[in-house]
Amino acid sequence: MKSGGFADKVRRAMSGQGNADQGLRIVSILISGVVFYGGLGWLADWWFGTSWCLPVGLIVGMVASIYLVIVQFGHSDDELTSRQEDSGE
Q1: What pTM, to 2 d.p., does this model score?
Q2: Contact between residue 33 and residue 69 where contact means Cβ atoms under 8 Å apart
Q3: Which one is predicted more confidently, 47 or 12?
């Protein structure tokens, strides 16, 4: 039985699963992955005197960030509801 009322919306908002909060988390994951791995690529370029590590680092950072977003946020509401029912929440 699906329960979709005001109480569920409030509970979801209070638990940090609101839409704005979720969107900001996704954007921060995407930005931080590119910055982190791009920074590692830049350091590798500087250290080894090459010019290809920065673009590789940026691409790896974007791919890793997209993967993390899919793993963390790539579920449907039905899956989330069934997981909550299984765990007793």
Answers
A1: 0.65
A2: no
A3: 47
